[in-house]
Amino acid sequence: MRKTILITGASAGIGKATAAHFHDRGWNVIATMRTPENEQELAGRENVLVPRLDVLDLDSISKAVQAGIEAFGRIDVLLNNAGYGAYGPLEAFPRENIVRQFNTNVIGLLDVTRAVLPHFRENGAGVIINVSSIGGKMTFPLGSLYHGTKFAVEGISEALSYEAEAIGVKVKIVEPGMIATDFAGRSFDFQNDPAMPEYQGVVGKVMQVFASGAEMQPSPPELVAEVIYGAATDDSNQMRYRAGADAHQLLDARRAMEEDAFIQNIKAQFQL
Ligand SMILES: NC(=O)c1ccc[n+]([C@@H]2O[C@H](COP(=O)([O-])OP(=O)(O)OC[C@H]3O[C@@H](n4cnc5c(N)ncnc54)[C@H](OP(=O)(O)O)[C@@H]3O)[C@@H](O)[C@H]2O)c1
Hints:
Blueprint: E1 4-7, H1 13-24, E2 28-31, E3 48-49, H2 58-72, E4 77-80, E5 85-87, H3 95-123, E6 126-131, H4 144-165, E7 169-176, E8 188-190, H5 200-213, H6 221-233, E9 240-243, H7 245-256, H8 259-269
Parallel strand pairs: 1-2, 1-4, 2-3, 4-6, 5-8, 6-7, 7-9
Bound molecules: NADP nicotinamide-adenine-dinucleotide phosphate.
């Protein structure tokens, strides 16, 4: 029997690549997104449903989940992928941007999970895969908000896994390194306030490193899709999956080093 995955943020990047990857392997795909009317490629495929789902809109979440269940009979895997990055000095952020960052990356993920859990509980089965980041295990300067959300995703996922086991559900976490998507462009909420000169040295140095990082070879989103597919189908109890050579390198270093030494290392990289 064909299995079904529901994906949030399937309009672009990792979500879109994952939708195509699962569909190519014979899955039904509920490729949810904020603006399905703009979707050309996925919408034309058989066994792909493209409902509107904005993780900030509860009504759209429940309607998309219901539409998915009606179309395919059941959901086997939930991929919480929708998200973006807010970077910059905390003091430079309007409060509404802070709330939006946590509402999207954290509360939205919880709301979608809560909308699917009753279905999984009824089936006594299901896999929840949460897209975290290497930034859920380590931090870069100016990332108090983004890393705050991804550390939250890590803690939520790990803690949820205990109770999920009681209803036959597995919770998994995918930690990509740098991936070639719109993340650093359209999905980057960078805030700075030149009226606070104290921060401008840090901002300048960090932006310089980020800009030179953009010239490095990021992994393609298809690589993350493959890792997600592995997590969805390996039937193991493995919780965390890294995606990308840089993710392995950085998280191995994070694990191998004392915390203070690792932070000194990050500071040295940014010349702070
Ligand atoms: N790229 C990286 O280097 C990287 C590394 C580690 C982790 N990640 C994580 O990977 C995930 C996907 O990012 P990406 O790299 O694929 O970036 P992307 O290409 O910019 O995709 C972001 C997706 O999230 C969606 N989204 C944003 N706000 C939403 C909302 N309120 N409701 C529903 N969907 C929403 C976007 O939809 P719209 O098209 O409507 O804007 C888009 O589909 C994120 O959670 C990100 O934190 C990315």
